[in-house]
Design brief:
Radius of gyration: 27 Å
Helix content: 25-40%
Strand order of the largest sheet: 3-4-5
Low-confidence stretches: none
Shape: elongated
Largest sheet: 3 strands, antiparallel
Number of strands: 5
Number of helices: 2
Strand content: 15-25%
Structural class: alpha+beta
Length: 100
């Protein structure tokens, strides 16, 4: 009798372990390959994509999705702060001297 109850418990454990694998969620692809290539043309915040010109509130500071360096055509987008007059505040670039 003891052997039958041990075999029964092992059988029940086996059944539960097999069915637990079937409850795994199906994986989904969030980005298509073209979007992965074009990552420089969007800004991300809280797992959401924003296009150029989007204005959001980030930690009580208004920010805009804009080009990192506006003088370059293919500059990647980044979040930059806005002042009270809705003007973009660009970060100060340290002046460097290059010697060839």
């Amino acid at each position: 009798m003891r052997i039958l109850s041990i075999i029964g418990v092992c059988f029940i454990c086996f059944i539960y372990s097999v069915t637990s694998f079937s409850n795994t969620p199906k994986t989904t692809l969030l980005l298509n390959p073209q979007q992965a290539i074009d990552q420089h043309s969007i800004c991300w915040f809280e797992d959401k994509r924003y296009s150029e010109g989007a204005i959001i509130l980030m930690a009580n500071v208004r920010v805009i999705c804009t080009a990192k360096t506006p003088s370059h055509n293919n500059s990647p987008l980044t979040w930059l702060m806005l002042n009270e007059q809705n003007e973009i505040i660009y970060p100060n670039v340290p002046k460097t001297i290059r010697v060839n």
